[in-house]
Structure formats: structure tokens, C-alpha cells
Amino acid sequence: MKYLRYGPPGAEKPGMLDAGGALRDLSGVIDDVAGPALARLGGHDPEALPRVEGTPRIGPCVGRVGKFIGIGLNYFDHAAEIGAKAPAEPIVFLKATSSIAGPNDPIPVPRGSEKTDWEVELGVVIGRTAKYVAEPAALDHVAGYCVVNDVSERALQIERGGQWTKGKSCDGFGPVGPWLVTPDEAGDPQALRLTLSVNGDPRQDGTTATMIFSVAHVIAYLSQLMTLHPGDIIATGTPPGVGMGMKPPQFLRAGDVVELSVEGLGTQRQEVVAG
Ligand code: ZN
Description:
The protein is mainly beta. The protein has one domain (62-274): Alpha-Beta Complex (Fumarylacetoacetate hydrolase, domain 2). Helix content is 11%, strand content 29%. The protein contains five helices and 18 strands. It has helices at residues 76-81, 154-158, 165-168, 183-186, 215-225; strands spanning 2-6, 13-17, 23-25, 68-72, 91-94, 100-101, 107-109, 116-117, 120-126, 142-149, 152-153, 174-175, 180-181, 193-198, 201-207, 233-235, 257-262, 266-274. Strands 5-4-16-9-10 form a five-stranded mixed beta sheet, with helices on one face. β2 and β3 form a beta hairpin. It is globular, with a radius of gyration of 18 Å. The mean pLDDT is 96. Zinc ion is lined by residues 70, 119, 121, 150, 235, 237-238.
């Protein structure tokens, strides 16, 4: 099933898509697609819910996010394109939760930035508390999957004395959604195609099959380091085709349009604007 949140920023309401793709209002059933409700997704009948009129803004598909965790260099073919060795253990960084945005909200280029880059990723939303979880049980803790654009400012990330968080956390750098798709519908998380284009030109085209560390491995690994709570988001890394890896490198400018999809999880579309 496909859950989402709609309405103005900060005042989103919970919703679902029905079988025909129409938006239904879930606010009479749960307060938000967030917190404890994430452990109970999948048990709602969208056909029994009121239809939502019009075409409201779609917000990030999960609310009250406690942690927004990124995994770096998690695709063999992406590590190769930027000349990096495959890491021996997952590279973990945090994106500020204030970077979270709706899937079609504009991406502001930070002041002075010349190296704002794109990264289509499979997003994992935690539904049940995970602490010291073993890999075979890891996926039992997933509420659903979504598209994430792990927007990254490469100068801040790489040229400013360390800590990727600097280049990953700017406002609008974390579009999440449009939908939170339950695991039964999303299927095998290691068999999903990911694509991204800029101004209609294909840039990224990969598959989660080339991840170095699987979704289950990443959840188990992180759960040894910190408790994962319902609503935490993990951006699991990006396949090849980022601007930094192009020859010559290419980055986003105001007016550019980025479109990205993960198979079965929907499409995001962002216009790049001056920040
Ligand atoms: Zn990333």
C-alpha cells in the first residue's frame, strides 16, 4: 500500500492512494504517517476513506523524523566512477532533519554554491524499534520504502575540513517521497531500478542489486551503533551517474529540473532555485 502526507509544509495530513491512484484522507484514522502508527501500516482500506479534492502539495512521506541517516559509497559501480575503493564497512553520516522536503519542492542552491549535486537513493523508513538486531530479522523493522534525493554540496562535503554532514544538510537537500510503500508491495529491496535525469537528460540508471551492503545488513549494522526508532530514515547510497563523477563534472544551477524514480516507489520532480 502507498501512504503519503499532503498539505502545506509543517501542516501535512496523512493520506493513502486508492487502487485507482486517487488520494484518500487518512486523518480520521491516524494522526500522521509517523511514530507508532508506522508499525501498523498496511491494515487500512483506502476505498473506505474520504476522497481528497484538488491537487494539494505532496509532503515528505513520513513525519516526526528523529534521524536521517546516510550511507556513503554503497554501490560498487558508484565507488568506481569516483575512483574510490569499496569500503570495508558501511560509511555512515547524518543529514540534518531540517533538510527534509516534499518530493516536488524546489531545491535551493546554497549561497555561493557551485557544486550542488544529485543522488537518487532507496530510502528505508523504520517502523519498529531496532537495537542489536541480527541481519536475518532486520527487514522486520521496516515500515516501508521511498525515494530519496540525497542532494549534496560537494565543496561543503569534501573541501571544508571533513564531515560529510556539512554538505548533506542544507535546507531542501532531503526530498523524501512521494509515497511510503509497504514492504509487501515494494518487493525485494535488492532488485529495484533507480533512475535520475537533469533537464530530461539521463544521468543515473542503476539497480539496488549492486549495493555493497544490503538494506538488511545496513539496518543490522546501524542497530549495533544506535537504536533505530520508528520514523528514522536511512538513505542507502546512490548508484553511478552523479555530477561529481562526470567528465568534466557537472552541477546544478537555478532553473534546472531534476526528476528521479525508484521502481515501484514513485517519481520526484524538483526545480532548482537560488537559495
Ligand atoms: Zn547519498
